[in-house]
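Late entry, S-adenosylmethionine complex.
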Amino acid sequence: MPVDPTFTPRRPPGRSLPIADRRATPPPATVRLSITDRCDLACVYCRPSRRDGYHENRLDDDAWKTMVVALVRAGVRRVRVTGGEPLMHPRVVDLVAFVASLGVDDLALTTNGTRLDTLARPLRDAGLRRLTVSIDSLDPERFARMTRGGRLDRVLAGVDAARASGYDEIKINTVVLRGENEVELPQIVQWAWARGIVPSFIEVMRVGEAAHLPPEVLFGADEMRGALAGLIADEPGVPWANRGPAKYVRARHDPHLSVGFITGSTDTYCDSCDRLRVASDGTLRPCLATNEGVQAGALATEGRVDAIVSAIDRAWSLKPDGRTWKGCTETTAADVSMRAIGG
Ligand code: SAM
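Prediction complete; structure with ligand written out below:
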């Protein structure tokens, strides 16, 4: 495949990005790897169907290894494997083992859990430390509706397998939609706490498919907190160090239990974002809310670690200035495919 050594960034139409002055800032510390854009679910806020719009040129295993070596050389210390659905990648366990062998500080994975019953243990043995499972409902019918056909029993079996596999931490992520699962919040929290799992609730963000939903579906974090008032303390949420954008509030009656809230719509957190994303075709994406990026897939295929390190530097220099940039509330977010960029 021909390589474009000038890495012409793809700049979407619309307002130009407020680019931060990165000369005095550190390189990306956290990366999210979308190891495949395929998914066996089609959540109503994420993608229109299971079959459409996939990348044609996905990185192969050797290219991913080259990519990860370059990311670590560029300064990345924390890796989250995601997708698409990462457990649909046939060699996800090998890829996780390879990342673990590089000695990063944190190695986590986000999954819809449909294949976790068989993969939880091999992934843990491969060196995965933390796991996040996306569960939007504990009601089988609602779960099937929100995921367009997903089976809750399979996901719950996956959670059980993960709990038996000795992970350092298991979380669940729940995207909350008004008129759908907002009535379940207390039940989900108690279900999670009873299993040693940290629940986090996510405001739906107008990214990709969600931009087609009526705006009223947004159920804000303040409303979520109101729905959980009997369970959580009346205190400001605080971020956990190196644990992503969620702000955590402790349980009212037990300071060891918490609930996370991710406010990508009513409040943004771009100023603290140290995250780079790598799409399944090897495009380096500095921000979830734009299609801006630097293509490095061909370099990865050719094993050119040093050239990828330079490409990472260029991608990072495109990161919007978090003091003025408003993330997924920017109009550019509607053109982004969550599945392709790696949510
Ligand atoms: N397939 C995996 C999973 O289901 O967790 C990983 C990829 S998925 C894109 C990652 C996370 O992004 C999930 O928790 C999903 O609910 C969330 N997500 C997708 N679209 C979203 C949106 N428009 N707003 C908020 N969260 C979204």
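Residues 39, 43, 45-46, 82-83, 85, 110-112, 134, 173, 175, 202, 204-205, 207, 210, 338-339, 343 surround S-adenosylmethionine (CB under 6 Å). Will revisit in the morning.
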